[in-house]
Write a structure and sequence with these properties.
The structure is a homodimer of 286-residue chains. Chain A is of the alpha+beta class and 286 residues long. Chain A has two domains: 112 residues, 2-Layer Sandwich (D-amino Acid Aminotransferase, Chain A, domain 1); 160 residues, D-amino Acid Aminotransferase, Chain A, domain 2. In chain A, 28% of the residues lie in helices and 29% in strands. Chains A, B: This is Aminotransferase class IV.
Chain lengths: 286, 286
């Protein structure tokens, strides 16, 4: 499977089969760069739009700043517009924006890719997902006074996140909920953890935990608050997730997916509440 | 500054100006791959050799295995031999071996690069280096039962290591000694920590700490033991580093460098002991 579209910041779209990164770019050799993943929707007449681009560019600016990389949102908007204009086949697409430090003596490199949704997403959205809980090794306040640990930075250094997802598969699950060394719920490798008790929505607090603030979780909480839900950032333990009425992993491209099993134990689903949350997140009915 | 040499596993040497990595390779997008950094020496007649290649390939095999990536040492040796044959300008060189998961639907990608030594290495070898101690966020036993945290795996996810070195510069130092959340000495972002008390050499234990076993530290300990030193893996605190007779950061390309300042406090140097350690590590006199 090759990319559908490939863009270079400052250049425009190029052949999606091209190799574009140099072997001495610290984005590759050190995972020293940052990224965003966004959902693109293309309607029946071939017009494309990207979900909450402002929020993604704002977060990428914060990531770049933490890594001491330059970031020009307007330049990125030009590249995104070119990609959207070329994205004409109706459906959903995954768009990534990547910023690397660039090869030795060079300048930072910005890349945009558009590709098909992962094949498992439609099933996971419909049937929910089984997760394993895994220790992240850090205490829930480890990041509070340690900016070099890059808490909240979406860096190109996800090897542990990918290894954790492989461990989940080994345990008969498909995804992970990371737990702090002192037993508090953190996040999933590529999504936020959100749970509901009655008409209250909860997620992990940012400060000190090092988790990434989710753009879809934030959109959900804004819209849910406007719709009369109570919303709260709360420290929770795995037992609280079992006790919750609903539990979702919430990401920008996959949207919210029901967690139907934790460490092999089945959780009840509430399909009406999940449908409501999906709508609030900007995703349609399954 | 461009690369001196560039090689592709299974192909051979290519134009060192080539971009060779695809924008959807998880080695780039997720830091999902592994690497080694080795020293190459080229003598006056243009013959090159690489230091302790067996140890580097053995460690890379372990890294690849932890990431569920295939690894064929013989194939790497073919590529290394081609690079050594083409490396004819007398001096020292930095050789990197990189293995990425490869683009979606593709196969893993192996890369070899040869480049000049970092400009600061000769000065650091001669004058020593100032370090800052920084909290790594994990307890000294955090990795013991959590293989998904990739302790001891040299993955392409070094963003925290690079951010820590930038923090060190902000603090008036040049490198970092990471300390566990519970106050034990770990490692430097790209080297091992070794200290001496009398005729005893110490370094951080591997189990549970998550540190990378250093190939140069291991060579040093083997040769030092044969030369009558006592060698030991020991849990230590920063106060123990101040109390030690000598303290070095030990890496494959830079070799051992004296730590002459910790968090702004000057340490005494013992140039005779450092010269002995340099020789044991396979590095000449400064």
């Amino acid at each position: 499977m090759t990319l559908t579209l490939l863009g270079l910041l400052g250049t425009g779209l190029v052949d999606p089969r091209s190799a574009v990164v140099h072997a001495d770019d610290p984005g590759l050799t050190r995972g020293d760069g940052c990224f965003e993943g966004c959902r693109v929707r293309t309607d029946g007449s071939g017009r494309s739009q990207v979900d909450k681009l402002d929020a993604h560019l704002a977060r990428m600016r914060r990531s770049a700043s933490a890594l001491q990389l330059p970031f020009d949102a307007d330049e990125w908007r030009v590249l995104v517009d070119k990609a959207l204009a070329a994205c004409v086949t109706p459906g959903e697409w995954a768009m990534k924006l990547l910023l690397t430090r660039g090869p030795a003596g060079g300048t930072p490199v910005g890349l945009l890719t558009v590709s098909a949704l992962p094949a498992e997403y439609p099933r996971q959205r419909r049937d929910g997902i089984a997760v394993a809980t895994l220790d992240r090794g850090t205490a829930a306040d480890a990041f509070a006074r340690a900016p070099w640990l890059l808490g909240g930075v979406k860096a190109l250094s996800y090897a542990v996140n990918m290894a954790a997802q492989r461990e989940a598969v080994r345990r008969g699950a498909e995804d992970v909920i990371f737990v702090s060394a002192d037993g508090f719920v953190l996040e999933a490798p590529t999504s936020s953890v959100v749970w509901a008790v009655g008409r209250a929505l909860f997620t992990t607090p940012l400060d000190g935990t090092g988790i990434l603030g989710g753009t879809t979780q934030q959109l959900l909480f804004e819209r849910a608050a406007a719709a009369g839900w109570r919303t709260e950032a709360a420290r929770a333990r795995v037992a609280d997730l079992f006790a919750a009425d609903s539990l979702w992993l919430v990401g920008s491209v996959r949207g919210p997916v029901d967690v139907v099993r934790i460490d092999g134990v089945v959780r009840a689903r509430d399909t009406a509440r999940t449908a409501e949350v999906r709508t609030l997140c900007g995703f349609g009915r399954q």
